[in-house]
Write the structure tokens for this entry.
Amino acid sequence: MKDLSVCWLLDTYGCLFSEKHQRMMNDYYNEDLSLSEISENENMTRQAAYDAIRRCEQQLRIYEEKLHYNRTVAELKEAAGKHDIERLLALIDAL
């Protein structure tokens, strides 16, 4: 089963990947292509496509773990929705 949180990470950090990896991740997560279809499109084995996608997923999680961009945006939206000015200011100061 696909982890849809990867889509959110891909939207944020996908531009850091090579064009080939961007294409593969887009095909897998946004276009819902199978590994077989991706491997055929990229002229590689199904196992190579699987390994590349898993490495990209891992790299996306590492980017978020180090940069916290998506988490910070979510916290800012939550604080703004609650009109929590003190929390907003704290989050902005932490940036």
